[in-house]
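Recap slide: ATP-grasp domain-containing protein, sequence and predicted structure.
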Amino acid sequence: MWPPPEATSHRGSRWRSCTYGWTGWWANCSRSAPPAGSRRPSPADDARSRRPPDARPPYPRSEARHLKGRAMTPRSARPPAGPEDQPHLLLISGIGGHPPAAALDSLARIGPAVSVVHIAAWGDPEPVRADWAARALRGEFLTAADLDDAVTVGLALHERYPLSGVVTYSELLLRPQAELAERLGLPGNTPEAVGIAQSKSRQRQVFAEHGVPSPRFAEIREEADLAEAARSIGLPAVFKPSLGAGSQSVRLVRTYGELVEAYRDGRATVSAFLQSEDVFLLEERLALEADGDSGWAAYCSVESLLAAGERHHLAVSDRIRLRHGYAEEGASMPSRLDAAVQAAVVDCADRAIRAIGLTTGAVHTEIALTPDGPRVIEVNARAGGPMPVMFEVGAGYDYAEQIGRSALGLAPDTAARFTRTALVRMVPIPAGEWRVTAQTPVPELMAAHPELAYVRPRFEVGQSASRDRTLHLATFMLGAPTPAAALELAGRIERALGIELREAGAPAGPEPLPGPEPLPEPLPESALARAT
């Protein structure tokens, strides 16, 4: 799996190495063919953590900014959960999202009965089995061949040891989670709502029906649809697959020729999804890349938790300015935006969530900040890639545990109260084919920068790097007192990464290219608040 364990370092014992995410699947694919009917994955950042047992504060309704709490009450008609009536949670794992080791740590805080159904289509399940066995949890570790088999295996498990809830942290595994919850009468989103959340095309249709502000769009189902889509939306515009994650295959197309090329490339692209939707969208271009000269992008996201009939909006996270197309460059929470803008953003996200019909678990809603107000980019029925660990760094909040509680029909028992800014930086790969010729060793970086939670390079020196496998050269996460301080520190650490690239096929020589231009110096903190 990639990155190798020695290339990943974490600050303290709470930070665990993860090799089960998107890049792990692609490392597997580099040695063997992808699963039949699958497509290429996006490079979701999978840094994760758990908090210590003494980090949970009491749940204060009055002090939560966006969290609308209610008493900790389980839903009725939950089936018994086996010996001593302990709640029995099922974790569906396989690819992407919160890594299984960290997820198991969080779920074990709820109770000792945690089973796993691991979908083996993407790689060897044995490392996950070892993580589960090491925790001496009650339950069973089971493998499944694909999404449908995961449902079959889960139903059989329920016959032996009744389940109380089903949870996953991966975009690719939402469908079997929803199907199991529905068939067993457990808390969860309906398969219909999950289907809408996974389809950008269906989302846009639902938003139009419910008056939720979002970009104008046209569906593309075959090449003959391209001309009408370009005419109705206009160019330049944004081309994207309806089913996808991590900005993979999302392009700005300026001409009709670029649109045709993007469509043909999209049809040929292989993805990690074991389901398919042969629909593409051409969307109105929104100016997302930069929010003036602030160093931030003109979009953000709302991180929510749906539980026990309530929608809890925990935080707004900002995005680092985009300089390499639509490849994500990082995020920061809590937000620098002023209270009025945050309130408008949260209201927009809430309307979108209700329109889709989501009721349970984590939701990650991306919102464009436009002169006409917030507009929904997309809603995801799971936690955003690095968000669980960002909550840990900034607030000591175990988001993964609260997601598990939601799967049991329980309200949150604590609020996210931030004491510092958490920032994740994703260093994009420049367009082209490259070879990595130098980078600073991870232990050296960790020793020099105690603010780091982790550093995770995606490549070793000497390896080839291109956007075919992942969009990023490295990711790292840090904590800092303020958003401006976090952005400034991220720029310094990025320079310290020392990544140097040489164009693939170029002869060896003394002048390799430096890596991507590091982050610029941010504006003073006083200049970061966005005007209402």
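DSSP finds 14 helices and 21 strands in the chain.
The longest strand covers residues 296-307.
(End of recap.)
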